[in-house]
Specification:
Length: 205
């Protein structure tokens, strides 16, 4: 291994060390209590070292946000093997909701917190991770149209509508507004609600 390759590998190892520590602190303590100094204490380096890799806390959390999207996209992309397009769309919704329930902090980072998007705004870039996941949903809806489940419709508007419904369900759950139900069936109730909503769209489009 050459000197340049070794240095690049060392830089990547350090990035990974910083991100792992940041993720651990974020999942344990939340965004507000996770600081560059706290991360530095965990990895036993000075805060100045972290600033060599990440401009600020927002940029660091944007990197965590990208990792979370990769995890979600891997989960949803695996469903492309389902042959029936409507069943695939239903299962995508189920997996999206389940991901949010099992990873509430990551979901908050991906879709609710301002920090990652503020990092993008500073770099004058578009939200590529959002576009990729939204593009996958658009593809799934287009496949439903091609198969005759939906009539020809505005795919983008349909995707926004379905995504908004899923996000609404998840947000109600994450903010503990489903705690009024005492039967521990919150996930099942959300999954059933999504199926009902999607079938209603199927009947009306």
């Amino acid at each position: 291994m050459g000197i340049l390759e070794r240095k690049e590998r060392e830089r990547e190892d350090m990035r990974r060390l910083i991100l792992n520590a940041a993720r651990e602190l974020f999942l344990e303590q939340g965004y507000e209590k996770t600081s560059i100094r706290n991360i530095a204490d965990v990895i036993e380096y000075s805060p100045a070292t972290i600033y060599l890799y990440y401009k600020d806390k927002n940029e660091l959390f944007f990197a965590l946000h990208e990792e979370a999207f990769l995890k979600l996209m891997e989960e949803l992309s695996s469903l492309q093997t389902i042959q029936d397009s409507f069943a695939r769309l239903i299962e995508m919704g189920h997996r999206y909701i389940k991901f949010a329930v099992e990873n509430p902090e990551l979901y908050d980072l991906m879709f609710i917190m301002k920090a990652p998007i503020e990092a993008l705004a500073c770099r004058d870039e578009v939200w590529e991770d959002g576009l990729k996941s939204f593009g996958l949903l658009k593809w799934a809806i287009q496949e439903c149209v091609n198969a005759g489940y939906f009539k020809n419709t505005d795919i983008e508007v349909s995707a926004i509508t379905i995504w908004s419904y899923m996000h609404g369900l998840v947000s109600i759950y994450l903010k503990n507004r489903m705690s009024m139900f005492q039967d521990n069936q919150q996930l099942q109730r959300m999954q059933q609600s999504f199926v009902l909503f999607t079938k209603m769209i199927k009947e009306t489009l």
